[in-house]
Specification:
four-stranded mixed β-sheet, about 20% strand, globular
Length: about 375
């Protein structure tokens, strides 16, 4: 998508052919900065410490991390290489527990290198598989966007509204994927079709990912307004929202959805106000191995994320400040679970599905691209 009129992906192989470049989201929206990742440990740290974020992008980054691990250990003997590579898999897998795409991508890489003739062949296979995962993410999101836009246009015709007013939560944008995004794939497709559109953007405390959503929507010409998280119910009740569209870090076999903390409250408000609540669900984010949301590991992050806020002062310098008294305690779960009963439908690359159809339609996830 566009940054200052120039097309970018969030992650790419560097010109040296031996490292990876990614957009360092910690600097956004104040500065566009690319970070060079040279080792699998650096990639694990980037995933863990949220230099990058978003389930699909985490998966692609982990896949490239395996390729970097192969390059690091290429000179070792076959037994030493195998041991080093397995340690790298463990390091990458421990980086973030909730997003299932990470495990999905690592499983694909394990299968890709399992029959390699030696370290050099393993590196080649891992490189090709990482590229395939990245390109597949772009294809999946583009198809998801088309199905989602078709759905919204049908709703618009049935309900007779002109401008489509969408409320979203967190950043399920192209910054959270390799390109197009999941939620934003639908929004960008609608915008490109010329459908009048306005997006209510939750700020999404404590990490304020809404700032990223608003920034990327503005960069790509989509009208939007940021709201504090607690405004969503008021907007729904006052008739200023037509539908709610959110992403997912993991969706279980029965259709329960783990997404950024606060999503559940939006689903409850949507149900109370008779508004459709849709989840943008690429197939790699579907986890048929878990029966329901109670089985999802919910990441608990540092209290510091709650107790401090990043911003820019009057002189333009970015930094952190705390509105709380010293010694204040905080609790910081990264995600909550929205039960399937509150979800109107799941927008996927294979069409718009209900909870009963998910396991049949999405499991197992395709290797790459769109069937």
């Amino acid at each position: 998508m566009l940054i200052d009129g120039i097309r970018h992906r969030t992650i790419r192989v560097a010109a040296d052919g031996a490292s990876v470049e990614l957009i360092d989201q910690r600097a956004l929206p104040f500065e566009v900065r690319f970070e060079t990742i040279r080792t699998h440990r650096e990639m694990a740290a980037a995933i863990r410490d949220m230099h990058l974020r978003g389930a699909p992008l985490i998966g692609a980054a982990a896949a490239y991390g395996v390729w970097l691990a192969c390059l690091e250990s290429e000179a070792l003997s076959p037994p030493g290489f195998a041991s080093a590579l397995e340690a790298a898999f463990a390091t990458l897998e421990a980086a973030r527990p909730t997003a299932v795409n990470l495990r999905w991508a690592l499983d694909r890489q394990r299968a890709a290198v399992a029959s390699a003739a030696g370290p050099a062949d393993a590196a080649r296979r891992a490189f090709e598989e990482a590229n395939d995962i990245a390109d597949g993410d772009v294809a999946i999101n583009a198809a998801l966007g088309r199905h989602g836009a078709d759905l919204v246009e049908r709703l618009r015709a049935e309900r007779g509204f002109d401008t489509v007013r969408v409320l979203t939560h967190c950043n399920a944008g192209w910054l959270a994927t390799v390109d197009r995004g999941t939620v934003t794939a639908v929004l960008y497709e609608l915008h490109e079709r010329g459908v009048p559109l306005h997006v209510w953007v939750d700020e999404t405390r404590p990490r304020n990912q809404g700032a990223l959503t608003s920034w990327e929507l503005t960069q790509n010409g989509v009208p939007n307004t940021v709201i504090c998280d607690n405004s969503g119910g008021h907007l729904m009740r006052s008739g200023r929202v037509d539908l709610i569209l959110v992403g997912t870090d993991r969706t279980t076999r029965n259709g329960d959805v783990a997404n950024k903390i606060g999503t559940y409250l939006k689903a409850l408000a949507a149900r109370d106000n008779g508004l459709p609540f849709f989840v943008a669900l690429p197939s790699p984010s579907f986890d048929p191995t878990l029966p329901d949301g109670d089985a999802i590991p919910i990441e608990e992050r540092s209290p510091d994320e709650v107790l401090s806020v990043r911003g820019r002062d009057a002189s333009g310098r970015a930094g952190y400040a705390s509105p709380y008294a010293p010694g204040t305690r905080a609790f910081n779960p990264g995600f909550d679970v929205t039960p399937a009963r509150l979800v109107t439908g799941y927008i996927t690359e294979r069409g718009v599905l209900d909870a009963e159809c998910l396991a049949q339609a999405l499991s197992p996830a395709p290797k790459s691209g769109v069937p």
